[in-house]
Design goal:
Elements: H1 7-26, H2 53-66, H3 73-92, H4 98-101, E1 108-113, E2 116-125, E3 128-133, H5 138-148, H6 157-163, H7 181-192, H8 207-220, H9 225-232, H10 236-243, H11 247-250, H12 252-256
Antiparallel strand pairs: 1-2, 2-3
Helix pairs in contact: 3-5, 3-8, 9-10
Length: about 270
């Protein structure tokens, strides 16, 4: 790996190896007494890099002007695409990389429940295919991308979803599929002064938007941990492992109890 893995990574590898040994025992190739004990000398994990609510608001405000300051047309196109990419990651919880960059317009559809329309996105990545529901305002960011696309700009958003074009969502206005989105994000972090998490002391990456999504959902109590795990394509155990430090805040109302009127101290 080129670095010392953290404990959670070693645990995952040990679990996979133990399944191999279990199968060997089941087939009679190995006895239980011969099964080696898996050790875990991985490093302690660090807090996931994320954004606070105020930092995220600063970022979204900063990107508006930053997109227009590129010296070359392609630079401005990259910045415009990154802006919407950042906003979509933060409002869906999808993984940067294969899940997001592999997304096509045919993977986006409206679903209706009790008369209300919801934007459903089918992603295919680390955990296979899954369907997630985006925040309502994700439509705005997707529509902006479509309006810059020569093949889609004359169509309404609904018409695009009905047509299900087999075109990548995240590509430049020229139609080019860029490989520079990580580098452009690093420039954004540097220029905005938000390149480091105050607590983790490490540089933020595009994955920080996924962690921001999880923090926001949990702290606002939008839905339960099971639903969050399903939405993000992970397990409840992983949610608890990486975001368990939010537990006290989540239950602040129960822990603090009811607020009573101020009264004079008697002690």
């Amino acid at each position: 790996m080129g670095k010392q893995p953290v404990k959670s990574t070693v645990t995952t590898h040990n679990s996979a190896m133990n399944r191999v040994f279990d199968e060997a025992i089941k087939r009679g190739w190995l006895s239980s007494a011969q099964m080696p004990k898996a050790l875990n000398t991985g490093a302690e994990g660090r807090a996931r890099e994320t954004f606070s609510k105020s930092e995220y608001q600063s970022l979204t405000s900063y990107m508006v002007g930053w997109c227009k300051r590129g010296h070359m047309a392609k630079t401005r196109q990259m910045r415009e695409l990154l802006r919407d990419y950042v906003l979509i990651l933060a409002t869906t919880g999808m993984r940067h990389g294969t899940e997001a960059l592999g997304l096509k317009w045919r993977d986006i559809a409206w679903v209706t429940k009790k008369g209300e329309r919801y934007l459903q996105i089918t992603v295919n990545g680390k955990t296979g295919k899954r369907q997630l529901i985006a925040y309502h305002h994700t439509e705005t960011y997707l529509l902006r991308i479509a309006q810059r696309d020569e093949n889609l700009k004359d169509k309404t958003f609904d018409d695009i979803l009905k047509a299900k074009p087999d075109l990548p969502v995240f590509r430049l206005a020229s139609g080019e599929i860029t490989k520079s989105i990580n580098g452009t994000f690093r420039h954004l972090m540097r220029d905005s002064g938000l390149d480091k998490d105050r607590d983790a002391k490490s540089k933020r990456t595009l994955y920080s938007l996924r962690h921001y999504y999880a923090h926001k959902v949990l702290l606002e109590g939008r839905f339960d941990v099971y639903t969050l795990a399903t939405q993000m394509g992970t397990s409840v155990k992983m949610i608890e492992q990486h975001y368990g430090h939010l537990t006290a805040t989540l239950r602040a109302d129960a822990i603090a109890g009811k607020r009573h009127p101020k009264r004079e101290e008697t002690t």
